[in-house]
Amino acid sequence: MKALITGGNGFLGQHLAHVLVDRGEAVCLMDINFHPESLGSLEGKVKTVYGNIAVFTDVLEAVQSFKPDCIFHLAALLSANAEANPITAYHVDVDGSFYVLEAAKLFGTKMVVYTSSIASFGPGAPDPVPNEWDQKPTTIYGVSKVFTERVGEYFDRELGVDFRAVRLPSILGAGRSGGGASAYSTYLIDNPAIGLPYEAFCEERTRIPLLYVDDAVRALVLLHDAPGTKLTRCSYNIQGFSPTAGEIADTVRAKVPGAHITFKPNPKMQAILDSWPRSLDDSVAKQEWGWAPAIDLNGTIDRYIAAGKSHR
Q1: Among candidates 90, 97, 103, 109, which has minimal Cα distance to 7?
Q2: pLDDT in tens, 73-103
Q3: Catalytic: 154?
Q4: Catalytic-role residue among 90, 99, 114, 141
Q5: I need a labelling partner for 305 at 20 to 30 A (CA). Which of 98, 153, 166, 172 fits?
Q6: CA 187, 168, 93 angle in degrees (round to 5)?
Q7: Given this structure, which CATH class describes domain 2-169+212-237?
C-alpha cells in the first residue's frame, strides 16, 4: 500500500507513519511544517512533500505525484486555535477536507481515512453518546468535523471514494503539543513526568474521553484494514477511558512523588470542554471491525513516566 498522511509531520501523523513503515508500506508525509531533524528516525524511510492543505493546488500536486492507495487525512487546526482563528479554521478544516476528497476522486485514490472528533457532538448528549446521536457542535472545529463526515459520506455514496472516519477522543502521548482545549489532559501527566509543575486551565470535575496515541493509531489501521463488506456506515465512535481531571491529577501524584498540580479554570476553555461528551459508546466499532482499547489511564501514565526519565 502507498499511504499519504496529511498533517504527516504532526504528533499523530508521525506515530502513524512509524506503524505503516514497520508494516512495509510506502509512506509520504504532507505538511506545512518541516524543519531540520523533525522526522527523527523516519528520516530516509518516508517521502515528504511541503503543502498547505488549504491550497487546492498543493493537495492536487501531492496526490497526483505520489498516487496513494489511501489518504489518512489528519491535517487540522485544533479546537482552541480554531476558535481563536475561525476564518483560518474554515479554510484548513473545511476547504482542506473537501480538497482531499476531490483529489482522491480525480486521481483514483481508493480510500480516505479521516480523524473526526468527540467535538462533532454538542451539549446535552447522553452519557455515553451513541454512534448515531445527532451532531450539533457549538465550535467551528466541531462544525468542520460534521461537515467532513457528511461530505465524505457523499463522496463514498455518489463518487466512489471509500470514506472511513473515527471520532477520536483527546489523544494522549509524550510529545503532544498544545492547540486543543483537551491539551490539559496531556500536560497533567507530561509536566510532572519531566519534573515540571502544571496549572490546569480546567475544573477538576472536567471529564472527557481520552485515548493513548498507540491505541489511536491502531484504530486508524484497523479501520483501514476492515473489509468493506463488514462496515455498515462511514463514521465510528471509539472510546478509551474517561477520568475527571482531578482523578488524573490524583493518579499522577500517586505515581510521581512531588508532582505539583494546581487548577485555575479558564472560562472560555471550560465552555468548550463542557460542550463535549463525557464518554462515547463504541460498541459499533467493536462489533464491525474489532476495535478495543489496550491502554488504560495507569498504562498511559506509566508510559509518560518512562518517556520523562528518558527526557531527563
Answers
A1: 97
A2: 999 998 888 999 999 999 999 999 999 999 9
A3: no
A4: 141
A5: 166
A6: 95
A7: alpha beta
